[in-house]
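Table S2 (text version). Query chain:
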Amino acid sequence: MRRTAATFVVCLAIAGCGANASDSELTIDVFGPYRDAEADNFAASLQQFEDDTGLTVRYTGSADFVTDLRQRVESGISAPDIAIVPQPGVVDDLIAADRIVALDDTSVQELRDNYPAELVEQSMTNGEIFSAPGRESIKSLVWYRPSVFEEHGWEVPTTLDELGTLVEQIAQDETPIAPWCFAMQSGSATGWTATDWVEDLVLRIGGAEVYDEWAAGERGFDDPAVRDALVTFDELVLGAGRTAGGLRNILQTDVTRASGPLFGNDPGCAMYKQASFAESWFPGGTVIGTDVDFFVLPGTDPSAPTPLVAGGDSLVQFSDDPDVSRLMAYLISPEGSEVWAERGGFYSGSTTVDLDT
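Corresponding structure-token output:
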């Protein structure tokens, strides 16, 4: 934690700095992948902590978060106090390299009070807890505008085959609407949206056991189910006329702006597969369930439960300063999440956060 003579505000790397200054001379440095609206939502969730403690939290968001975090940590002088890490493997690397500190007793108690016991136990490493769950997301969602579907007579598919038929129908219709909005540009993380697509398809085509073995590296990309998933992804999304703007748009458009054509007065796409956090990227005032809705990417068998791929961010702590630990405990608590949950685009495994606010 940096102790400075100046007064800092919550600072967003993309959106600039706001005018919410604190009288405190203490600044806690938080680093994460949230930018634009997501960064605004996270900053809003910190306001109560700042008001209650007199501390100031400076949040910085990066499009190249993993690369930038590694550079900051390896420099030995600019590691953040707290980081929001979207990749479990990065957390494992930080633990193995002894770069982060274990959560203090207060934070661990917040975990036990607010999260299922099995999740707390899964977080243990040699009897200590080095990370806490942050925002969680459901990845297997397909967003669409009900009014557009109704206007064109399109039906929400209930199987993967029906989805393929719908994609073909939309592509063949004499309208400027492509089946999909899709983009991959995300700095050093470019391509993760394609990975998410393939993961969902492997789960549906191969089943949970195949998916788990593939994720664990026990099956290669030459596995029949994985090959089938890659072919299906190509046919559904990457083929000619399948995606708004074509291949150039896929490669050049930032993932946070991929849904833009879905919301045009003259829509450019019919569907947009993205996780639950995509709500934060939609135009302001968008009403979920009215302006836009979603269905879960269907499986192969309509009589079986539809599989879901979920993900989440982890909170890790580089400093054992007591004020940093106070912020960590706050972020784990319901108060640290409810403002963002009310704004939309935030889901949590917590048993005490009111997601219906």
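Notes on Table S2: The longest helix spans residues 36-53. The CA atoms of residues 87 and 197 lie 17 Å apart.
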